[in-house]
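Table S2 (continued). Query chain:
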Amino acid sequence: MQPVPVGSRIRVFGPTKESAMSNGVPEVGDQDPAARNSPIAGEDDEDTLFLRHDVPDDAAVCWFNDVPYADGSFVRSGTVILRCDRGIWIESGPADPANP
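Corresponding output:
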């Protein structure tokens, strides 16, 4: 993962939790291995602690296919909703509200 140069400007995207639950979440597809991406972990995943060591403490964004998203943002990747949590995508539930 490449750090964002100091002083550079990036456009950060991200809906609120309320819009995530009302289907206002951007569909991002699958992660492209050739693009910049933040790691994905489950809510109760033991590996989340290990992933935190690979992500800077001050990570203010999560990356998905070279697009930065603000901390606390939600995106839809296939059948799952992901929430940005200090540089790590956390699986936050199914993307289909009719099938929780």
